[in-house]
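Subject: Sanity check before I submit

Could someone independently write out the structure tokens for this chain? I want to compare against mine line by line before I put it in a report. The sequence has 280 residues.
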Amino acid sequence: MGVYFVYRCHYQGPTEKHLRRFEDATVLDWFRNHWQPIADYGAARQHAEQLLGCHVYSFGTLFVDIAEQNWAPPESATRLGEYLEHALYGSLGLSCSEHVVQVGTDDDELEMALYIFDDHFLKEHGKLAAFLLHEDWKLPGGHRQGRFRPAEECEELESAASGKGAIYLAFLAFYDSANLADIESGYRLKGVRLPELGRFLATLEPDDVNDWTGEMQELFMGVQQSLSCVPPGQKAKTQEDAFLLAIRDDPADDSNWNVYADWLEERGLPPPGLRLLERP
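---
Independent answer below. Compare away.
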């Protein structure tokens, strides 16, 4: 059996979260086994960082309160919840049970959330923790046959694409201090798949992407800049630049794309659609 601590915070780099596993039977057991009075706040903060593996906003206060309030280890989830309500700054809410603790907080600049749950919780609600338990910022690279039906509603990006399939987009970004409370949905671009996305963007005009999300507008601009790699009136200095100029002048001409694809393949580089996404 295990207990998992996850800190979801934009200060944690591209993954936006920190994960640590402990050998405890339940969440309540985890707190009881790490229940320690530390009167000095600096020492309490340092202890919390060593225990959890990173700085977690306001968590060190728990050990200070244990010392100052002379709290005994909690015998129930109800008592634990009372302690946490007093010790932790749960500005966005706090919930506590024997098998899961969830705290939403903020440091006046950004919002953070921390989760402590165990294998009993995962047995009943494992899907809810799939994102939290995925350690890398990169998605798994596998696939399966059949249609994909997203569990969450996605906002449609309007386009004239008429091919098969769709691309789904999720952006790990924040724009203001409501970075978790106002988190955006995913997006879907119908009629094009990922290997063809770069080529599709090369055929568009700025007016075609006016209603798209900002990240996709930036990607469109990056592809267009790659195609405009040579200033007007100057000649291409590399073979790849020459291919890109030809594609820019006539993005609908298959022959330019095919020659460029052969050239990239000979050099072990990604196909044109992905290469145009990679360059920006």
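---
OP: Matches mine. For the report I'm noting this point. Residues 48 and 271 are 48 Å apart (CA to CA).
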